[in-house]
Structures are given as structure tokens and as C-alpha cells.
């Protein structure tokens, strides 16, 4: 019988010279003996063509340089017990295309075509099991259209493109799969696709770990892990939806989770940690629901919530162990956050709510171990706290300014410097709250603050119970104080005339000092002792997208250090010799000018605005901060604080908004230093109708109109800043001098590592210093080289490798725990 006409059979053939020697056995499912035959074919593709639905193709070990297309419901597999021995590796095109509900198992697929995926699933509901994909393709595995594969224990290594792409309505289930490298996103979902991920791992991706974008696009992830990615761990944008349950996201270089533009995300029993930026960032009407999830060890905000319509609902969640200087929860620009039965602790600040329309509702939650302010409400925002517990914070709650308010109801505040502060026209309602053992005051109202306090209690204050000054129109009803060191109630104005009928209203308030508390007299009262330093400290700053923080002090205060002390800190910085000389020369001129004025002599006019040029990581921001502090210590600036901005903070999206943004940044810097990083971005070479010019013009006018109020420092790469000043003579004429920050030499980078080691109680073993010098000499010095930042990252990498090494020792010695060896150095990038 002619083999070409035969029925089900077993087929074998040898490869031609372009392929490794091997055979493919085709086991057919026919029942008739005469149909079970073998034959030889010229290619693997011919075997697939000869096979029918239900047949099993067992591929012998070897390399097959063919583009396979599976269009029948067959089983295609390599030999059992020899994973990776069957290699599908054509020179171009798609190595494996699946258009049926086939079972494909135990193959190694290698792709070479950067414009095509290595494995493409277009139709059916195939099963792909134990497949390893090693490629440099547009995508390692791509699922599209109506395909619904089940993918189990597959690994994708694609440093050139996307690891796994599910698009155009595709779906399927991915179980125990791993993306070991991706040049873009690890797993990308778009075009209305909707896969389910179970116990998958994604790491070493150069984009987001898990990404979904576009309306109707969605994914569900259960028991998955995302780590070591150069982007966001999870990114959901453009009306996409995602559900994560029992997942871990950690060790990213950008935000842990990013939501933007009507994205919807649910996190349940998830863990987000070791994130250098925001752990979770939401914008543009996105909605996040978090349940029983943990956020820890984040460099910026644990939760960052922006824009009207953006909302986060967190229930039974924990946010703790910040590694930066930012509030754990940040709500601004009209966004809403709801925290129910949550815990926030070991952070610089717990909850900051800013801007009109922004709101936070906190119920039955605990905020503790807060270095600064537990709850801050400002710029017209609202916060409501019900039955919450605040302890061990500098300030329990601070309502800062006009239009800011809300309600504290049934809350306890324990172990703070000051329990509740109300300033500058803020008007909260505080009901049935108890402040225990404050160091300075239970409730403090000043600077035009208002507020209504009903049924509140202060016990064991180191200062006053209720301290109301400046004639503030505060209402106190049925409040009680006990054991307050300086007195239960203190009412005083700041001197001067007090309008009739102003001042606090006091009803049915009692103290253990007396039977009752009388309202203060309406005539001017005696000024009480001044507030302690730091009571009205700064609001910690917050960045906008991809920018450094805005840091602005809210109240003028005398400098904490002398210029000599600050210059001592400057001298202690590694390297920067020419910078130190320039700053000292400028400081000397200002100081001598001040002394000449005091002596009645003319003083030379010194322009204090500066240009800083040099590479990133050379200390420009640090020197700007110290410069502001020096000027404050000399009395040249009122505060000396630093406000750092860049183009995104100054340039708006429509006509007129740029001038407003620039004015706001200038006002925040009033009395201090306005530091504009990458200032050349305000004047791009292909500017066209760019609004950056408007920012420059506004800034020049403000510098002219308020010469003594703000010192402006513009900074950036040397060549770009030279161009910027050339094309903007109005800006250039207002700066006294340019200070160039040279790159650190290897010896200086070594000294930075040594300082880091000393600060963290590590030591460099003999020979490690020499190895570091060689490392810093050899490390590529391209545009991304971070100078001092690179030195710090190198130290951190050494500590991590040291920990992995020492953790294996049963009983490590002190030397084991402290000595860093050359073997702990990371590999050169």
C-alpha cells in the first residue's frame, strides 16, 4: 500500500544536513492494525502534516531548524526524562505556531527574529507544558485572538522583548510559569486580553513585571511573585483591570504598583516591600481596593494617591518600615483614601492629606512610631478619623491652614510632643478624644486657627492641656484636663489689640486645678511662654511624576547651626575641593559685606544666585541645601530651606498654567533656596510652542521683583547648561557664578564606600579597598553613571551579597558579621 495513502501509523525519518540527526515517532490513534504503519519523511513539518487529530508525535533529541505550525489536535512532545534535548531553532520567523487544541510538551524553543514571537498561540485551547523559550524576539510567548491556552511550568528568557504577551482578546491560564528575563515587560496584557496567572514568577525584566493596559484588558494573578525588575512591579493603565491575591512584589527600581487613567486593581493578602520609590502610586481616576495586604520598606510613599476621582480603599492592611523621608500615605489633588482597621507605623509621617477636594477617612486604625506628624491636613483638604489610636509621634494630628478640616471622633493620642495642632484658619471638629502624656500640649491652637473641641480630655501633659493663643476663635465644650504640669487651660494673644468678641468660647470645661474654667477676658492678655522649637515644623515634601521632593518649611525659625558648623559639614564631604573653595569665597564676601554694613560702610552687591554644572550624583543637591543653611545662619535668608523642582513641577499643560506653577514653586521657596534640576529642559532645542519659555520668563520677573526673598540655583549637565545660559541671556545675567562639580575619581568613590561602611558598622577586609579601586576604575562611565550614587549602590550590593554569604554560617563570628570582602563586590554592569 502507498504510505501516502495509509491511515494512522508510526512515522520515522532522518534529518537532512541542516538538522541534527533525530527521528520523530508518530503514534496514531486508529484501531485497525493495518493502519499502524511507519514511514520516513523529509521534515518534521511533513510529520505534522501526516498526523491526524489525537495522534502523538514523540520527537527524538536533536536540533530542528524548522518553523513548526501545529494545526491539528495532536500531542507533540520530547522524550521523557530529557528536558531541553529537543531544540526547535529556525534561523528566522516564528519557530512554533499553534492553531489548535494540541498538547505540546518538553521542548526547547529558540527564536532569532526580533520582529516575531518565539511561540505564537493563535487559536484553540492548547496545553503547553514544560517548554523552555530562549530567544531575542519581540515576545517570548504570544497569545492572541480567541486562543485560550493552558500553559504549565514554562520558562521564558527573552532579554530583547516582552516575556509573555497576551493581546487582542486572548486569554488562558498560566500555571507555575517563569519569566527569567525580559527586555521589556515580563507579562504584558493588552487589547482586551484576560489571562489568569497562578503561582508564576517574573524577574529581571527591564519594564514592568506585570502590565495591563487598555479598556477590557484584565488579568488575575494568584500566588505570583514579581521581583528584580527595572520598572514598576505591577502596572495597570488605560481602563484596564487586575486582581492580585497572595502575591509578592519586591525589589523593583520604580514604584511597586502603578495605576493610571481609570485603572482598577484589587489586592488581597499581598505583600509589597523593598521598593525604592512609591510602594503603590495611583493617578487619574484609578481605583484600588486593598485587603489584608502589607506594604513595607519603601523609599517614598507607601500609598501615593493623586487626582480627582482617584480612590483607595484599604481594609486590615499594614504599612510600615519606611526607608525614606516621606509620608507613608499621601492623598492630594482631590483624591480619596479610606483606611479601615489598618496599621501604619515606623514611618517619618503617617498620613498627609492636601488640596481642596482631597479626603481621607480612617476608621479603627492604629498609627504609631511616627517620627514627625501622624496626620497632617492642609491646603483645603479634609480628614475624618473615627475610633483611631495614635501614639509615639511628634504631633498627633495637625490641621494646618484655611479650608482644612474634618473630624476626629473617639480617638486616643498617647506619647506625643503635641496631641492636636490647629493653625492658620483651619477649622476641624474634635469630639470625645483623649490626649495622654503629651510633652508640650494636648491641644494647641494658634495663628488664626479655629476648631471645635467637644468632650475632649488631656491627662498628664508636660505643658498645658489646652493652649490657645493669638485670640483664636476656638470653641471648647465639656472638655477636661488632669495633671497638666503648666496648667489645664491657657488662653493668650500675641500682643496688640484684640477685637471685641474674638477669642475662644469655653463652656462647661473643668480641670483638676479648679471647679471650672472661665472664658478668657476680652482685653489683651499676658503673652505666655513661647512655643518650643519644632512645634510648627515643616510639611515633608512630595514629588510629582519622576521628580525629587518639594521640601518647604512652613514657619520661619532661627537656624539651628552656625555658618561655621555648616561649612564644617561641607568640608567633610568627599572630594568637591573646587566647589568648597567657591562656596567659601562666596560666603566670605557675603559675611564681610554684612559686617561692613553694620559698620556703616558701603558693601559690594553680591548676587547670590548660582549655576551648578556636572554629572548626576556629584553632590549638587547636598551643596545647595548647605548653601541655603549658610545663608540663613548669616541672616541673608529668613529660613534657608530647600525647594527642589524640575520641568514637570513648573511647566503646565495649557496656556496660563505654567505661570501659576512657577509662582507656587517660588512662593514655597520664599526665604530659602529654589533648586531647579535639569534646568536646560525648560528650553529644549526643538522647543516650538513649548511652555518652558513661559516658566523662564515668569522666573526672571520673580527674581527681579523679589531679589532678597529667594536664592535660585539652576543645575544640570555641563554642556546642556552652557547652551541653556547662551539662549537665555535674561537668565544668565542674574547668576553671579557657575560652580562645576567634577566627577569623583576612583579614590573618592572608595572613600564614600568607606564612609558608608563606617556609618553602618561594617569594615573592609584586607584587599577589599584595592578591589574597589579596580572596580570603580573599570565601571562604565556612561550617561547613566551615578557617581556618588553608584558608590552607595555598590556598598548596598556588597552588604546584600555579604548577608547571603553569612546567612549560611551556623555561628558567625563578629568578623563574619562585619567584614566585607572583594568577593562581595557586584558584577560590573
TrEMBL record:
Q: Where is this region: Disordered?
A: 1-21, 492-562
InterPro entries noted in UniProt: AAA+_ATPase (IPR003593), AAA_lid_6 (IPR041627), ATPase_AAA_core (IPR003959), Beta_helix (IPR039448), Carb-bd_sugar_hydrolysis-dom (IPR006633), CbxX/CfxQ (IPR000641), CbxX/CfxQ_RuBisCO_ESX (IPR050773), P-loop_NTPase (IPR027417)
Keywords of the record, alphabetical order, are: ATP-binding, Nucleotide-binding, Repeat
The protein's GO terms of the molecular function aspect are:
ATP binding; ATP hydrolysis activity
Q: What's the superkingdom here?
A: Bacteria
Q: Which Pfam families match?
A: AAA, AAA_lid_6, Beta_helix
Q: Which residues form the AAA+ ATPase domain?
A: 606-745
The record's SMART domains line, in alphabetical order, gives: AAA, CASH, PbH1
- Carbohydrate-binding/sugar hydrolysis domain segment(s): 59-190, 331-492
What is this protein's name?
AAA family ATPase
Q: Which family does the UniProt entry place this protein in?
A: Belongs to the CbxX/CfxQ family.
